[in-house]
Structure formats: C-alpha cells, structure tokens
Specification:
binds protoporphyrin IX containing FE, about 75% strand, globular, about 190 residues, ten-stranded antiparallel beta barrel
Length: about 190
C-alpha cells in the first residue's frame, strides 16, 4: 500500500486519510449511580497536512482529524474531538494529540504497524507519565480526573475498527469509560 502522499511519507497513517462513517458505536460512560450505555453513530475526517520538523532533528508527517459522535437515542452530538496523528518516520513513533471540550488535553504515543491491507495503530497516555501525559482543567482534575487513555485503531481496506479506554476517577470510583465502533470509508 502506498504511504507517500504528495511527497510526504505518512507510514501507517496513510491508510486513514479520508472520511469515515460508522453507526454501530457503543459508549460506556460513568454515572453517579453506575454507568450508562450509549449507542452512537459518528463521522471521522482525517486530512493529510504535510510535514513539520522539530529542532532540525525530528520529521513528523501530520494528519489532522475531527471526530463528531452523535447519540442514537436523540440525534444530538455528545462528543466532539479534534486533534492530530503524527508519524515520526525516523523513530517509528505515532502520536495522537487532542483536546475535548470538557477541558482535557492528551498527548498519547505508541506504535504503528503497516499490515497486509491497512495498519494497526496503538497509542496511550497516563496522567503522570514522563513521556505521554494528560493535562486537564482544575474542575476536571478535582471532580472527574482522567487517569489514562489507550486507543487502538485497526484499518483493513475501507473498514476501520477502534476501541479506546479512558480511565476516569469520578464519583469516588475508578471507571473504565470505553468507546468502540466500526466505520467504513465513504
Ligand atoms: C467516542 C468518544 C466518546 C464519547 C461518545 C464520550 C461520551 C461521554 C459521556 C456520554 C459521558 C457522560 C457525561 C455525563 O453523563 O455527564 C462522558 C464522560 C466523560 N468523558 Fe467521555 N466520551 C468519549 C471519549 C472521551 C475521551 C477520549 C475522553 C478523554 C480523554 C473522555 C473523557 C470523559 C470524562 C473525563 C468524563 C467524565 C465527566 C462526567 O461524566 O461528568 N471521553 N463521556
């Protein structure tokens, strides 16, 4: 599979470029007295944004993405996330950096492996990790603190499956807030 687009090598990220839609999403979110399960549909747009060098040493190929998630029960957008995926062609490292409107910012890092018909991408971050950490607004830090984030994306041709686990310290318990979906390129 070609990984070079307009002269930039996006490595395992190349197969993500485009618009994806999926309607079999499932969100498990914390509630005061337990948890809620929210079926959803969504659209994710990944755009090739060229490359950038850092400190004259590191070269990153950049995808910008926008994920819009809509609750099936009422057709309202209930998660709206924007960020970047980058591929460090020298170090063979993928990063995912993003913010969500609640006031949580994540810089996650990990691996990207090109497979027969796509790629397998896995990144993670934790609150106090020295390398890939999480920053949050004071209200979130004190009331709904994100402890860790892990994201796995599996692309096979025009099908993408992902699962992400956001561990949240909320309502006096540690909660595995999970989201997963299968999408098709449109
Ligand atoms: C498809 C992706 C996601 C969906 C659909 C989603 C949806 C939700 C929902 C429905 C709640 C419960 C809100 C409430 O009842 O008040 C929630 C809570 C939360 N989410 Fe997400 N979420 C997603 C991804 C993320 C990510 C990536 C993060 C952070 C890295 C995150 C952080 C949080 C936090 C900290 C809370 C607790 C806030 C609260 O419930 O008061 N979520 N999310």
């Amino acid at each position: 599979m070609a990984t070079v687009v307009e002269g930039v090598d996006y490595g395992p990220l190349a197969c993500l470029i485009g618009t994806w839609k999926g309607d079999s999403g499932m969100d498990v979110a914390p509630e005061l007295d337990g948890e809620e399960h929210n079926p959803y549909h969504e659209q994710i747009l990944f755009e090739a944004c060229g490359d950038v060098t850092n400190a004259d040493l590191q070269m990153l190929a950049i995808l910008r993405y926008h994920q819009i998630v809509t609750r099936k029960s009422n057709d309202e957008v209930f998660h709206n996330e924007t960020g970047y995926l980058t591929w460090d062609v020298g170090a063979k490292v993928v990063t995912q950096s993003f913010v969500i409107p609640r006031g949580v910012a994540v810089v996650a890092g990990g691996t990207g492996e090109i497979t027969d018909n796509g790629a397998l991408i896995e990144v993670s971050a934790s609150l106090d990790d020295d390398s890939y950490a999480i920053t949050q607004a004071p209200f979130m830090r004190d009331n709904a603190s994100t402890q860790s984030f892990a994201h796995r994306i599996d692309v096979n041709g025009d099908t993408m499956t992902y699962k992400e686990t956001t561990v949240v310290d909320i309502f006096g318990k540690i909660f595995d807030h999970t989201d997963e979906n299968t999408l098709q390129r449109v």
